[in-house]
Write a structure and sequence with these properties.
This protein is an all-beta fold. It has no helices and eleven strands. Strands 2, 4, 5, 6, 9, 10 and 11 form a seven-stranded mixed sheet that branches. The protein has a four-stranded antiparallel sheet with strand order 1-3-8-7, with no helix packed on it. Strand 5 (about 45-50) and strand 6 form a beta hairpin. It starts with a strand and ends with a strand.
Length: about 130
């Protein structure tokens, strides 16, 4: 079994920064090849935020966060990070990490390709 635990969320003012983390346990190192970050605000569908490959050399970002958010990983710690800068009220959401378990294709934006999910961590940006 694979378990993902997000942490680091909280309340910040507009323009502030947060770093959320996703720690993975269970399975093996090969279980965490490609990882994704998604977010969901009340009344809205879950949306793609960022993705990163095993080596960390390839990343993908939603247009809404490009230039403000940065995804990285430390495989020795089985941990993926999302650094969020210049936060805006519209960034307020529950942030989830997930594992892409599909054997083909590159980094993906679509929820259905991600099999394992964390419980989420709340990020609130006040105006």
């Amino acid at each position: 079994q694979v378990q993902l635990v997000e942490s680091g969320g909280g309340l910040v003012q507009t323009g502030g920064s947060l770093r959320v983390s996703c720690a993975a346990t269970g399975g093996s190192f090969s279980s965490y090849v490609n990882m994704g970050w998604f977010r969901q605000a009340p009344g809205k569908e879950r949306e793609f935020v960022a993705a990163i490959n095993w080596g960390g050399g390839s990343t993908l970002y939603a247009d809404s966060v490009k230039g403000r958010f940065s995804c990285s990983r430390d495989n020795a710690k089985n941990t993926v990070y999302l650094q969020m800068n210049n936060l805006r009220p519209e960034d307020t959401a529950v942030y989830y990490c997930a594992v892409d378990t599909t054997p083909i294709g590159g980094l993906k934006r679509t929820v259905r390709f991600y099999t394992y999910w964390g419980q989420g961590t709340q990020v609130t940006v006040s105006s």
